[in-house]
Write a structure and sequence with these properties.
about 180 residues; 7 helices; flat
Length: about 180
Amino acid sequence: MTLLIGVVAAFVLGNAAASPHPDTPKTWVAIVDLLAGVIVLFFVVRLLRRPRDPKRVARMIDQMTKVTSSPVIAIVAAGATLANPGAFIPLALKDISERNPSAVQYIVEWVGFTLVSLLPLSLALVMLALSPESTKRRLVGVREWLERNARTIAAVILILLAVALMRNGIAGLTG
């Protein structure tokens, strides 16, 4: 689905975000960056203010455990769903469009974006194929670490994204 979105965007959006002056983005692009950064920060603050819900975490872990004990095809489908870049898609589409690509360049960059979003899943599947027992032990350890640190990791990544977006937006509006 991610690939389809990018191919459609290559022909619909194209280079609409590209600026005639490469070092200065279009005003609307700078505003989108600034607003996206503010929205991301809003959600991070909301996430961090909400108390942890151990029951919700337990439900998610139970669901992941069911998936990991499923046949390989179910694991691949679940992993591909989790690897979906979701909310980052519009930002990636805008970013590619800013580079003034041809339709073919747009599609090539989008395929690259899609493949990078699947790297963690691909690596885990290769490791499971090559060394299943060792990989399962490692994945359990990583899962336990993620259970303890997921909120912090998500907050740091989202704050860095928001800062970068707001920096780009402010630079575009003042430049």
